[in-house]
Specification:
This protein is mostly helical. It contains 10 helices and no strands. Helix 2 packs parallel to helix 9 and helix 6 (about 120-130) runs parallel beside helix 10. It is globular and about 65 Å long. The termini are far apart.
């Protein structure tokens, strides 16, 4: 716990500085996080018995993330990059002498790249978010900073609420074959905490309060699904953590797994209901 507290004390100020700058600095930070997490994902997939083209998959994931920083260049460019990536990895799979091995490498590489590239929606959320009305409590933040802050605090509050409630009141286990420590009580605690935080941020961003009852639980459950998805990969690889980069926390993927699913879900809701 002491190591976790020290790591958090170092990482949180850095994250807040990156968010304060936004724009190119934010895109560069997300790209760096993606590159580190991608190496961990492909290491885990290798540990699970697959043989992905790790370098090629990492480049594909980075290309999709960086494309998100320049949405004005070409409409649909993310889908185009994905299509080109599928073609290139397919060609690389031709080098495997056994077709079944080639198919596994192809599938594992594409999965790993597209999975971790979902972090690109952190950048896309900032670009797609609606303007913050003048006079709103958080109008000084602007749309990009304000909406990404909502995502970050919602996920953190879910993780914290789920941990504290689960540790102190958790009795009913679920999905123990994936994560033995998860409890229904913890999930409920996390959902309540995230919903309260989302409600406060939506108010600060000048949005209608009724969105809280949808976006709060939606973000919380997406964060939980992201955590469980990483647990599936780690269990398949026989690993406790994705790495040892952050003392007390594990690897980079261990810190961003919830955002991998929460970022596209929040972005979709903003585009569908708030634009």
């Amino acid at each position: 716990m002491r190591q976790r507290a020290i790591s958090a004390a170092v990482l949180v100020p850095v994250l807040l500085v990156v968010l304060a700058f936004g724009g190119a600095v934010l895109a560069a930070a997300v790209a760096l996080i993606t590159a580190i997490a991608a190496t961990e994902v492909f290491r885990l997939l290798k540990g699970a018995g697959y043989a992905p083209f790790a370098a090629l998959g990492t480049v594909l994931a980075l290309a999709i993330v960086l494309d998100a920083a320049f949405p004005e260049l070409l409409e649909g460019s993310g889908l185009l990059l994905g299509g080109i990536g599928i073609v290139l990895v397919a060609v690389a799979s031709f080098t495997r002498l056994e077709p079944r091995d080639g198919l596994e490498s192809w599938m594992a590489t594409i999965f790993g790249a597209f999975y971790i590239a979902l972090l690109s929606f952190i950048i896309r959320l900032g670009a797609a978010a609606p303007d913050v009305p003048a006079g709103s409590p958080l109008s000084a933040l602007g749309a990009e900073r304000g909406w990404i802050l909502l995502l970050i605090l919602a996920v953190w509050s879910y993780d914290t609420g789920a941990y504290l409630v689960g540790k102190n009141f958790g009795r009913t286990k679920f999905l123990t074959h994936i994560s033995p420590s998860k409890t229904i009580e913890g999930v409920i605690g996390g959902v309540v905490a995230a919903t309260i935080v989302v409600g406060l941020l939506l108010w600060g961003l000048g949005q209608e309060p009724w969105h809280t009852v949808i976006l709060g639980p939606l973000t919380a459950l997406a964060a939980q699904a992201g955590d469980l998805a990483e647990s599936v990969i780690k269990r398949a690889a026989g690993a406790k953590d994705s790495g040892t980069l952050i003392p007390g926390h594990g690897g980079m993927l261990d810190r961003v797994d919830s955002f991998v699913f929460a970022a596209p879900v929040v972005t979709l809701y903003v585009l569908a209901a708030l634009r």
